[in-house]
Amino acid sequence: MKIECWAIGKPHESYVDEGIKDFTKRIENYYPIEWRLFNLKKNSGSFSPEKLKHDESLLIVDSLKPEDWLVSLDERGKSLNSRKLAGFIQDRGNERIKRLIFLIGGAYGLDEQVLKKSKFIWSLSNLTFPHQLVRLILAEQIYRACSIGRNEKYHHD
């Protein structure tokens, strides 16, 4: 299984880039992993939130393959603790999923079209985080889940 982390927006800011690279390298000890950023046109800042979400959804849906397992991060999703996330990722691997995709939406969230394509909708927290930090948190949580799955010492109960 390959893990892909997709995000709408600009490249990682330098203050989070180092952390994302570090956790991504650690995850590679368990699964192949890749980050993919979807950038919109330069004038997208003048779009309405609905148009922006719609345009973002077209980029996402066009990039999905029928066999992909899409996990969308959304505040209305289901919460998982780190152990449950570890089991979730292991279950996808046991199901021989080819591509497990974690998707971080844009500033206004995800369009319904994308949410309907999702096999799971996950809420990281009830808190609101800066978009860049969500990427770092996601990378750390995937690494934590992988280390739990192998009974390694990174996670403490």
Write a structural description.
- With 157 residues, this protein is an alpha/beta fold.
- The chain has one domain: Alpha/beta knot (3-Layer(aba) Sandwich), CATH 3.40.1280.
- The protein is built from five helices and five strands, in the order βαβαβαβαβα.
- It has helices spanning 14-27, 49-63, 82-94, 112-117, 131-149; strands spanning 2-8, 33-38, 69-79, 99-104, 120-123.
- A five-stranded parallel β-sheet has the order 2-1-4-3-5.
- The protein is globular, with a radius of gyration of 15 Å.
- The chain starts with a strand and ends in an 8-residue tail after the last helix.
**CATH architectural arrangement:** 3-Layer(aba) Sandwich
- In spatial order, strands of the major sheet run 2-1-4-3-5
The helix content is 40-55%
Rg of Cα set: 15 Å
The count of β-strands is: 5
